[in-house]
Amino acid sequence: LKNCDSFRILQDGDFMDIRWLQPDAAFDKLILAGDIGGTNTNLGLVGYKNGKFTLILETVFASSSIDGLAEPIRETLKIALEMRQDLKPSHCCISAAGPVSNNRCVMTNLPWSIDGDALTAAFGIPTLVVNDFVAISYGIPTLDIDDPTQIYKLAHTDGSIPTPKAATKAVIGPGTGMGVSFLAFDGERYIPASSEGGHMTFAPFDEDTVSFCEYIKKQRGCQPGVEPLVSGMGLRNMYDWWKETKGVPNNEAFARIEATPADDRPKYISRASDTDPVAAEMMRLFVKMLGRYASDICTLFLPLGGFYLAGGTVQKDLRWLERDNLFMQYFEQNYNPNIRPILKNIPVYIIKDYSISLYGAANASINLQK
């Protein structure tokens, strides 16, 4: 059994996706790793041996269909033992989208929280809870930037791909929300740090972004952060704004988008953008905003060691990032001419390996748990 996907129906009728990646892998240490996002809850058994991580088993749940981690963890451990009696993790690290305090995360985009101490008591496995982008930061050192299955290098407008320096790295991830973190370099190793930079105030830069920002401001009663405009929920909100202020076409593509639940509209807008000019303009606006926000993050952290774009949204819409150099055109802009050359010297990478959060959580466990 290898690279096999299967499904199991849980007691309440919801589905769990079961993926055996390397069921025969050897390990010196086994970690139960978790990546809890607004859309999916991923749990994985990650083996560690000779400084390398191997994802053995992954289970995937729809985050909206569960109300906590106890049952998903219980089911995952049960499946593991059905395959191999030695698949008993010694430690657990759960990464989640939200601020973490006292080993507990109150998640930004879900109505339930994660308590690491409670999970430790329930399963007898020492459990550490970290911010999801701290986990991604711990995952970045495990990636090979020259492996095209893991990393896609985004060229600057002049075609150059800068060489990374031994310096700060940063990462953002437009998924359901917007995650941000960075890795400081102390001269010998990288030290990941968390951030809630996805909630910094959005800076509009043209007529459309001013209008979009004002629309969200009226809805929320305050100046909006980046996340409601530049993320999966941002594209969902963009559709509502566009429909109200510009109108949308009366055609088959937009009839389908309109009939789709709001949270699923971003993927249908992306799909329609290859043939529908209005959907294409929506994607262009999204990429412009992403480019400007990425530029702002890079002026803050100066990540000459590499700036990473994570999340499925970026991977699925790579064609729009590269089309007409749209992302880089807006990334390289700055009012100060002395800053522009710095931005042009920052390596920009798209993370292609969806398992980075699980590897990162496992790496965080190795580094942070005794």
Which sheet architecture does the biggest sheet show? Answer: 7 strands, mixed
- Helix and strand succession? EEEEEHEEEEHEHEEEEHHHHHEHHHHEH
**Rg over C-alpha atoms, rounded to the nearest angstrom:** 21 Å
**Biggest β-sheet: strands ordered side by side in the sheet:** 1-2-5-4-3-6-10
Distance N terminus to C terminus? 33 Å
Low-confidence stretches: none
Got a strand count? 16
**Which class best fits the helix and strand makeup?**
alpha+beta
Give the number of helices.
13
Average pLDDT, rounded to a whole number, is: 92
In terms of DSSP E residues, the strand content is 15-25%
Characterize the overall form.
globular
Helical amount: 25-40%
Kindly describe this structure:
It contains 13 helices and 16 strands. It has 370 residues and is an alpha+beta fold. The protein has a seven-stranded mixed beta sheet with strand order 1-2-5-4-3-6-10, sandwiched between helices. A hairpin with a 3-residue loop joins β12 (169-174) and β13 (178-185). The radius of gyration is 21 Å and the shape is globular. It starts with a strand and ends with a helix. The model has no long low-confidence stretch (mean pLDDT 92).
Give the gist of this structure.
This protein is α+β, with helices and mostly antiparallel strands and 370 residues long. It has helices at 70-83, 116-123, 132-139, 207-220, 232-245, 252-259, 265-272, 277-301, 312-316, 318-322, 326-331, 340-344, 356-368; strands at residues 4-9, 15-20, 29-36, 40-49, 52-62, 91-96, 100-101, 104-106, 113-115, 127-131, 151-154, 169-174, 178-185, 190-194, 306-309, 348-351.
